[in-house]
Design goal:
Helix content of chain A: over 70%
Number of strands of chain A: 2
Number of helices of chain A: 24
Structural class of chain A: mainly alpha
Largest interface: A-B, 34 and 33 residues
Oligomer: heterodimer
Strand order of the largest sheet of chain B: 1-2
Structural class of chain B: mainly alpha
Number of helices of chain B: 22
Radius of gyration of chain A: 22 Å
Distance between the termini of chain A: 39 Å
Order of helices and strands of chain A: HHEEHHHHHHHHHHHHHHHHHHHHHH
Shape of chain B: globular
Radius of gyration of chain B: 21 Å
Distance between the termini of chain B: 23 Å
Strand content of chain A: under 5%
Largest sheet of chain B: 2 strands, antiparallel
């Protein structure tokens, strides 16, 4: 395709961001909304014109602008889905900030639009260093968003966010330099098929791991996330949980697995071990939180651990499941942060104990919140069910123990999410202030209903989302199959005649 | 080679020297009234020297029997030096006009011209004597410039401190030069390189005289580039000197001293690469670490930028440690981008004045600058993120280039330790951004000068992502410059 649609998707928010800086607050809001909606339209166009099952890399653009590296863009199915997720959440973020942000609106909108540019760029980059630039540059607007418009402890949180992620990324940067010098190319598609010696792979893998594990975030380097989430404004949390956390998973999928298959296989124990700890530990931590945002932040860490085990399962179920969890979690956690934002805007507190009985005076809110709570638990029919089931199925083939440990995360997840929901929504109305709270406004409905629709769509008909990445998963598996670790689940073959009762159950099972 | 050809190759220095002497006469007869005219003519003289570089001065080869080299490397360094010098002249009048008790005198641009002439000699040196003469011409002019605000005790202290420590550094350098001369029998770079190649440098029979000479020469040069452990004069001098002079010190002489160090390392002592690499690696990492850690507690912007310049010199030395043409090219790339970032930062510092126009230097006074002067705050934030090496700003490419060279040369531990230390540096650059953007405004600065505003904008655009478009030209040019040394 000759029309540079990806460059256009980058240019529109970039131009709008600069324009915002020179506009008044209402004009900046409108500009940001229009720009993000245009990008959403372009994203939809991108999705509809993406040739499912066609060439691996589509919408390719290349211009050797920068000497040692070039302006190389192009997307496969994974990148497509994550770009669509980004452009889908962005107008919602702008809408969520419509009234909540009152000071320095033009700068706020510019920061969000720059974030959008950098996110799309990260997913679309086909050049190692172009990827790094977009990936790393995302720190600057996020640092400003947390630091300027954040809560009381915003400065500590913004520093922690920035320096933590910077340290991780810099080690990856050195690894990238080594790769580009050894392979004599910076093109990601070429590097995907370049074989580094196994001994070097381990070092490179660890350097990339340092970056992506922090971004992901994996236990024990997750501690920046609760701070950043709690202090960030609502829309900042949405974008952080919705898209920025996906950069880690995308990095594993794009770099660690296909570029260093042997190292990935030999270090599966590390990923699995950390993920299993993360699922159980952060779920337990989430159970005892008294701050709603912190609770959701810890639940994000647990969900991301399901992503990492799925990715490193080395089979189609695991990888596709991980992608589905990423997409589903992007929608659901974003929506949950919006739900918190809705009641925070009314009562200005995130303390769970201050709320109660919202079902009485905010019925519409209670319904939507219930939907997202159920989706977060992974109820069948919602997006997270598909992803979590596939991901755990994939993991089961490699390690039954890890699958067992990680499945407890779903039970614990049900525990902390239902506990949260019961305390906030059910029961008697706690105080006069709570009684005064009004139900969702039309603007808030416009923010939550599209996400709810997407969550159900993903849960009921996941094929729309699985189809674009199916071929990429096959290519990836063909690449990493040689290093595939032996699984410890050894199903034995059936013994011939199937009793009638069993046939019934198996037919029942396949209907799922 | 005839005399005319020799003179043609040294034309930039001739233009500067003749211009400086003529302007000195104008200054002597015209007095303070001629300041403005002398300043503008000085900038024109620098422009003339820049034009003179296009001739044989950039590719003529050796002049005066190898004492002076007119090659692409020298030409590249000189372009940076002249730009730095011109900006230092342009930013001075407004500063001195507003600052009470300090008058700009016509000697200021003349001294900068003389200093620039000395720097030109330094980067073109093909012989230890040319090197020393150039270095002293540059330094002597700089000592006077540091104490240009005669009524201000801090300025006088800065000048004296700079002079005493600079003299000590010159002594160390001269001692090294004498050792090298004594053990090689020559002051010419080519012959010194031959002697180093022939002499045993390792094992029990190694030539201690040559090694000591090398160590002392590098120690002297480390003083001039203010690399750790010879950096201690920098914060005091940068703080005390008038801000335009500080900007000058942090830009042009730094470029010149780094270029000189590169030339001596590659041309004169190339065969002893293994030996000097240890020194360079130590100085590099120590500078990055100390420049980052010591800057954390600073309250004065100029002191902070002084530590920042120490930190940046450390990064530039990573490229030198690689010792390859790519490494040298990366050093020159680094210095080009560093020049823009530093001059831009100091131009912003110049705008920090209270309502009466008196300069303020505390970091706290920047609080809430993004509210009161959004454009200025955005520019300084760009410079700070760029100095920290965060993409997409152009400062990232500077670090990219030096680390690329280091990894290419196989210096992985150096590269890894270097990037880890750079996170510490990021902390204090962020602190300035935090002060400007997160804190509430405490006061406002007086209005700025149009010319300075324009220069800030130019520097900010160069450092912004738009600067990446300059990479192909910059890489080709720096690589051509670097190849002329090998």
């Amino acid at each position: 395709m000759s029309f540079p649609i990806l460059s256009l998707m980058l240019a529109i928010p970039a131009v709008a961001a600069i324009a915002c800086l020179f506009l008044s607050a209402p004009a900046a809001r409108l500009t940001a909304l229009v720009a993000t909606l245009i990008d959403l339209a372009l994203g939809v166009l991108l999705w509809t014109s993406f040739d499912v099952g066609g060439a691996q890399w589509q919408f390719v653009e290349y211009a050797p602008l920068f000497g040692r590296f070039g302006w190389a863009l192009g997307i496969d199915g994974y990148a497509l889905l994550l770009i669509v997720l980004s452009v889908f959440l962005m107008p919602i973020c702008i809408g969520a900030s419509w009234q909540a942000i009152e000071k320095r609106v033009p700068e706020y909108m510019a920061a969000f639009l720059f974030t959008e540019v950098l996110m799309i760029g990260t997913f679309a980059a086909q050049d190692l260093f172009l990827f790094y630039i977009f990936f790393e540059a995302g720190l600057i607007p996020m640092f400003l968003i947390i630091g300027i418009w954040g809560g009381v402890n915003r400065i500590y949180a913004s520093y922690k966010f920035f320096l933590y992620t910077l340290l991780g990324s810099l080690l990856m940067f050195i690894a990238m330099l080594y790769m580009s010098i050894t392979a004599e190319t910076t093109s990601i598609p070429v590097l995907l098929n370049y074989d580094f010696p196994a001994s070097v792979q381990t070092w490179l893998w660890l350097a990339f791991f340092a970056s992506f594990a922090v971004k992901m975030p994996m236990w024990p380097v997750h501690t920046w996330l609760p701070d950043a989430h709690v202090q960030a404004p609502t829309a900042g949390s949405v974008i952080l949980a919705g898209v920025l956390l996906k950069l880690g998973g995308y990095g594993f999928l794009r770099f660690s697995l296909p570029m260093f298959p042997e190292a990935s296989a030999s270090l599966v124990w590390l990923v699995f071990g950390l993920s299993a700890v993360a699922v159980i530990y952060t779920s337990l931590v989430a159970l005892v939180q008294s701050d709603m945002k912190k609770l959701i932040a810890y639940s994000s860490v647990a969900h991301m651990a399901i992503v990492t085990i799925g990715l490193f399962a080395f089979n189609a179920q695991g990888i596709e499941g991980a992608m589905m969890v990423m997409l589903g979690h992007g929608l659901v956690s974003g929506a949950l942060f919006l739900c918190v934002g809705v009641i925070y805007d009314r009562l200005h507190t995130r303390e769970i104990s201050r709320y109660g009985g919202l079902a009485i005076n905010m019925p519409r809110y209670a319904i939507l919140f219930l939907l997202f709570t159920m989706a977060s638990i992974g109820l069948p029919g919602t997006s997270n069910f598909v992803g979590e089931l596939l991901s755990l199925m994939g993991t089961y083939q490699v390690s039954t123990t890890i699958a067992l440990l990680c499945t407890t995360g779903i039970i614990l997840g049900a525990g902390y999410m239902l506990y949260l929901y019961r305390r906030v929504v059910f029961g008697e109305i706690k105080s006069e202030e709570v009684r005064q709270m009004s139900d969702l406004t039309p603007r808030e409905l416009w923010l939550l209903v599209p996400i709810a629709a997407a969550v159900l769509w993903m849960g009921v008909y996941p094929e729309s989302f699985l189809a674009p990445m199916r071929k990429d998963t096959q290519i990836l598996l063909a690449r990493i199959d040689r290093a595939k670790p032996a699984g410890d689940s050894l199903p034995t073959k059936g013994t011939g005649v199937v009793p009638a009762a069993h046939a019934e159950t198996s037919a029942h099972g396949s209907a799922h | 080679m005839d005399y005319a050809a020799n003179l043609a190759m040294t034309l930039p220095e001739l233009v500067l020297a003749v211009g400086a002497i003529a302007l000195m006469l104008v200054a002597a007869w015209g007095g303070p009234a001629s300041t403005k005219a002398v300043s503008w003519v000085s900038v024109a003289v620098l422009g003339g020297a820049l034009i003179a570089l296009t001739g044989p001065a950039s590719a003529g080869g050796d002049a005066f029997y190898g004492l002076y080299r007119a090659d692409a490397f020298a030409a590249f360094a000189k372009v940076l030096i002249y730009i730095g010098a011109a900006v230092a002249i342009l930013m001075a009048p407004d500063f001195f006009r507003r600052t009470a008790g300090a008058d700009l005198r016509p000697e200021y641009p003349v001294l900068i011209l003389l200093s620039a002439c000395g720097m030109g000699m330094m980067v073109s040196a093909g012989d230890l004597l040319t090197l020393y003469v150039g270095l002293e011409l540059q330094s002597l002019a700089a000592y006077v410039l540091a104490s240009f605000m005669r009524q201000d005790t801090r300025s006088a202290e800065a000048g004296l401190k700079y002079f005493v420590l600079g003299a000590l550094a010159s002594g160390i350098l001269l001692y090294g030069i004498s050792l090298v001369y004594g053990f090689t029998g020559s002051t010419m770079f080519d012959e010194i390189a031959g002697a180093y190649a022939a002499a045993p440098l390792t094992g029990s029979g190694r030539s201690l005289g040559l090694l000591f000479g090398l160590v002392f020469v590098f120690a002297g040069l480390a003083f001039k580039i203010s690399a750790v452990p010879f950096h201690m004069w920098t914060p005091d001098v940068y703080e005390g000197a008038p801000t335009p002079v500080t900007a000058f010190f942090a830009s042009a002489p730094k470029v010149a001293a780094i270029a000189l160090a590169v030339r001596v390392a590659i041309e004169a002592m190339g065969p002893a690469e293994v030996q000097w690499r240890q020194i360079v690696i130590f100085a590099s990492l120590a500078s990055i670490l100390l420049g980052a850690v010591a800057a954390i507690g600073q309250q004065n912007v100029k002191r902070l930028l002084a530590y920042s310049s120490i930190n940046n010199v450390g990064f530039a030395l990573i490229g030198l440690a690689a010792g390859t043409p790519e490494g040298v090219a990366s050093v020159m790339t680094y210095m080009t981008i560093y020049l823009a970032m530093t001059l831009g930062s100091f131009l912003v510092v110049l705008q920090m004045r209270d309502a009466d126009g008196q300069p303020i230097e505390t970091i706290d006074s920047l609080a809430g600058l993004s509210r009161t002067r959004p454009g200025l705050a955005a520019a300084l934030a760009i410079f700070m993120f760029s100095l920290a090496g965060i993409p997409p700003l152009f400062g990232f490419y500077a670090k990219f280039a030096v680390f690329y060279a280091a990894v290419q040369a196989g210096l992985f531990p150096l590269a890894v330790v270097g990037v880890v230390f750079s996170v510490i540096g990021a902390y204090y650059y962020l602190r300035l951004v935090k002060t400007m953007y997160f804190d509430e405004p405490t006061g406002t600065f007086g209005a700025g000068d149009k010319l300075e505003g324009g220069l800030i904008a130019v520097a900010a655009v160069f450092v912004s992502p738009l600067g990446y478009l300059a990479i192909p030209a910059l890489s080709a040019w720096t690589l051509a410059a670097a190849n002329s040394l090998f």
